């Protein structure tokens, strides 16, 4: 298939160099998408149907056999050899069961090592004599060591995951999933499915995956290309709201950031923007040729009021006002016996008098300057925040020392979200066809609004875990979050079956749930791994660093990736100790390899990452590193649940009481 694409000759089918360039770019993308994947076979499963799909289910009718793979593969004659996992005929591979065989006689799973098939496993779904059993190949694939970036899960998608993956494009979906339930993978595979089912539409409108940080995006960036999807963009919320010339150079104390992230700030910004529109006080005189045309102040006021009542964007209304004024002038011309046309109206709208009147009534507003003034001018802020924010909240917003200009201001990440909100009030933000928002529980209401603006005419897949909310403004409920996102009707799904974290580890971490997220159902892991959890007390605090280094060296004796996770303040000391012990390490976001498998992970960057073996340094320090105990315990919950095969927790201080103390 790749050779066929490479051999295409477009010289006789393109009319000009532009068409040739576009077609060649499409061919290049096709060739790139057909690249072989190292250590990955073309297919991972097979379905033997009792009857040909779509045929009458008659006795004695011939069945049909299909190989299932990551993408469609055909032979030299164009006949299918492997069926794309997203095709309708592949769906029973994930959904069929003995209770509901879906006309499947046999489901075969293939095992492979280094790209070569080494095993297969059959399930005879219509044979009552065959006892049901947990798939050993499925278990082995889930437990396969994690070296390198995140990989796809097409061979291991579970029925409840498949339902979410294949849900339609028209509706939005919110997935609550605890650690190891595969919510991130489900969201990425849902994008791949939607691109398969609605390729033309999404090619026009675009798709976007939003993650919490660059390390996370680097970790997941190969999943979609491995499935043949190369056009999906990835970004953080900070990337979305970034503006040319404005860099994040400041930070906010937690109480200030909470107020800036509150949805009420949208009302403050709207009020501050609307205040720029003034009531016309003078009539307008338009000179055209030898004639003068007068538009009285009351008529200008009526135009202004009508535009304000339409509730359209500030900039759109400002663009419409000169045309309204020009139309009023044309009416007067017609009443005087003239016969003006649209060109005359456009010319009147561009006259200096009309431009000056519009600038006076509806002046242009720079979003960054608007936010600068709100954060610098107590009187201006009070005028538009009274009745919305308390006096204390207003004082939190004001800069101790006002900045003179937009360029010199020490903008924080929350400030850029406010500027993005103001920019949308002035001019509508373009909408995409579909947006995936991962680790959504950590977003503020204003950040939700920023993401929601990017999918007002499209749909969204929201992924998160309320128990892993580690920001002071973390969302309290998905209903609240979806309302801020502008998708209150989104379908809420919950994944409670864990596949990544061993049962012993997730049960230990779940001791924190009553303290961090009461009422949330704990994850029920399908994997037992005796000996996967070890909690060790270090007698002397001075020996903690040495113990962590020894634990990393012992973990490296196992196959797979190793993560040393510690409170951010402990990272420099641990880094020096690892280098002194001749144990080179990576930073989060750097790709692990067979020769470099150890990553030193600050607790603040652990979310969304996974390692075969985790060494957790001083849980109490991780809790103490956050603004309050609840946030600290949530951060600890995240760190405890990054391990796939084994977790060793080391502590010199007493463990948090929620974990059992001691």
Automatic annotation (TrEMBL):
Q: Which InterPro entries match?
A: DNA_helicase_UvrD/REP, P-loop_NTPase, UvrD-like_ATP-bd
- Give Gene Ontology CC terms: cytosol
Domain UvrD-like helicase ATP-binding as annotated: residue spans:
156-511
Binding residues annotated for ATP, in chain numbering? 177-184
SUPFAM superfamilies annotated for this entry? Answer: P-loop containing nucleoside triphosphate hydrolases
Q: Does the keyword Nucleotide-binding apply?
A: yes
The scientific name of the source species is: Streptomyces subrutilus
Its protein name is AAA family ATPase
A single GO molecular-function term is:
ATP binding
Question: Which branch of life, at top level?
Answer: Bacteria
Task: Kindly list the organism's lineage.
Answer: Bacteria, Bacillati, Actinomycetota, Actinomycetes, Kitasatosporales
């Amino acid at each position: 298939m790749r050779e066929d694409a490479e051999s295409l000759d477009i010289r006789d089918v393109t009319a000009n160099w532009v068409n040739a360039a576009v077609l060649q770019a499409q061919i290049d993308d096709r060739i790139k998408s057909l690249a072989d994947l190292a250590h990955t076979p073309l297919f991972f499963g097979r379905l033997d149907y009792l009857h040909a799909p779509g045929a009458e289910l008659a006795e004695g009718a011939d069945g049909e056999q299909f190989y299932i793979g990551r993408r469609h593969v055909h032979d030299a004659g164009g006949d299918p050899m492997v069926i794309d996992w997203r095709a309708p005929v592949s769906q029973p591979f994930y959904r069929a069961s003995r209770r509901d065989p879906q006309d499947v006689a046999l489901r075969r799973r293939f095992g492979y090592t280094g790209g070569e098939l080494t095993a297969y496993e059959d399930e005879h779904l219509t044979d009552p004599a065959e006892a049901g059993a947990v798939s050993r190949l499925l278990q082995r694939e889930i437990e396969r060591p994690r070296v390198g970036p995140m990989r796809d899960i097409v061979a291991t998608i579970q029925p409840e995951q498949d339902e979410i993956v294949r849900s339609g494009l028209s509706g939005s979906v919110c997935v609550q999933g605890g650690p190891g339930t595969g919510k991130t993978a489900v969201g990425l595979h849902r994008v791949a499915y939607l691109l398969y089912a609605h390729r033309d539409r999404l090619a026009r409108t675009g798709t976007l995956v939003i993650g919490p940080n660059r390390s996370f995006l680097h970790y997941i960036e190969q999943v979609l290309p491995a499935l043949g999807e190369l056009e999906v963009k990835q970004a953080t919320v900070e990337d979305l709201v970034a503006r040319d010339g404005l860099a994040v150079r400041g930070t906010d104390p937690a109480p200030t950031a909470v107020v800036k992230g509150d949805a009420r700030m949208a009302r403050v910004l709207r009020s501050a923007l609307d205040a720029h529109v003034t009531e016309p006080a003078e009539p307008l005189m338009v000179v055209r040729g030898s004639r003068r045309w007068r538009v009285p102040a009351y008529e200008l006021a009526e135009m202004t009021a009508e535009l304000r009542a339409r509730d359209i964007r500030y900039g759109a209304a400002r663009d419409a006002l000169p045309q309204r004024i020009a139309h009023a002038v044309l009416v007067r011309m017609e009443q005087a016996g003239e016969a003006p046309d649209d060109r005359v109206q456009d010319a009147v709208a561009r006259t200096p008098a009309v431009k000056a009147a519009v600038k006076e009534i509806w002046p242009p507003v720079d979003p960054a300057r608007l936010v600068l003034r709100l954060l610098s001018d107590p009187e201006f802020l009070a005028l538009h925040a009274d009745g919305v924010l308390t006096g204390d909240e207003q004082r939190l917003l004001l800069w101790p020392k006002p900045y003179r200009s937009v360029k010199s201001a020490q903008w924080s990440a929350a400030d850029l979200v406010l500027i993005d909100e103001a920019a949308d009030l002035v001019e509508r933000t373009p909408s995409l066809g579909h947006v995936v928002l991962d680790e959504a529980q950590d977003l503020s209401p204003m950040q939700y609004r920023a993401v929601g603006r990017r999918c007002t005419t499209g749909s969204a897949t929201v992924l998160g875990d309320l128990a892993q909310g580690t920001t002071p403004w973390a969302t309290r409920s998905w209903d609240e979050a979806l309302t801020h996102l502008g998708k209150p009707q989104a379908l809420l799904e919950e994944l409670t079956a864990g596949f990544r974290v061993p049962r012993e580890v997730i049960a230990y971490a779940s001791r924190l749930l009553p303290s961090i997220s009461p009422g949330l159902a704990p994850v029920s892991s399908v994997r037992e791994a005796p000996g996967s959890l070890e909690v060790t007390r270090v007698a002397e605090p001075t020996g903690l660093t040495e113990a962590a280094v020894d634990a990393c060296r012992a973990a490296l004796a196992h196959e797979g990736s190793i993560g040393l996770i510690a409170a951010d303040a402990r990272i420099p000391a641990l880094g020096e100790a690892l280098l002194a012990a001749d144990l080179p390490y990576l930073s989060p976001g750097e790709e692990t390899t067979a020769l470099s498998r150890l990553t030193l992970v600050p607790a603040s960057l652990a979310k969304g990452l996974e390692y075969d073996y985790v060494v957790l340094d001083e849980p109490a320090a991780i809790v103490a590193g956050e603004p309050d105990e609840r946030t600290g315990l949530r951060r600890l919950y995240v760190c405890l649940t990054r391990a796939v095969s084994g977790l060793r927790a080391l502590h010199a201080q007493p463990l948090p009481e929620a974990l059992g103390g001691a």
